[in-house]
Amino acid sequence: MIRDSGIWNMVILIAFGALTGLDGPRIAANLPTPWVGVWERINIGVFLLWVAVLAIALLRAPDTAGRVIRNEPRRPQLKRDPLGIARRAER
User: Fold this and answer.
1) Domain for residue 24, yes or no?
2) Quick check: 12 and 46 in contact, CB under 8 A?
3) Cα angle, residue 78 at apex, residues 76 and 81 outer, rounded to 5°
4) Tell me, what's the pLDDT at 75?
5) Does 77 reside within a domain?
6) pTM, two decimal places
7) Domain enclosing residue 26, as ranges
8) How many Cα atoms sit within 13 Å of 72 on the Cβ side?
9) What does DSSP assign to residue 91?
10) pLDDT tens, 39-49?
């Protein structure tokens, strides 16, 4: 899902970015460019859509952080002294 969305988003971003770039000389010459705003809004919309799809894909992904943490060696147990300072427990 995310791969297909990413490919289509890149194609659309490049296409509408090129259309915006083609009107660059007209913007510099202060000539009318009625469609540049539309191309830019399409670019922003496609980017935001890609961010939403990425967020959904990450939310649906299995939690892999828990597996990594469980395989780590146990940390040494700490005891707190009366002042609240953590010290390693004597074995």
Assistant:
1) yes
2) yes
3) 160
4) 64
5) no
6) 0.62
7) 2-71
8) 8
9) -
10) 999 999 999 99
Which two structure tokens, joined as six digits, stand for 51?
């961010």
C-alpha neighbours within 13 Å on the C-beta side of residue 17: 9
Query: Is residue 27 one of the residues assigned to a domain?
Result: yes
Cα 43 from Cα 20, distance rounded (Å): 10
Residue 57: pLDDT band by 50, 70, 90 thresholds?
confident
Asked whether residue 48 is assigned to any structural domain, the reply reads yes
pLDDT, the chain, mean: 82
pLDDT at residue 30, as a whole number: 93
Joined together, the tokens standing for residue 52 give 């939403």
Sign of CA dihedral 70, 68, 3, 45: positive
Whether the Cβ atoms of residue 36 and residue 23 lie closer than 8 Å to each other: yes
SS3 63: coil
Rounded-to-integer distance, Cα 74 and Cα 64, Å: 18
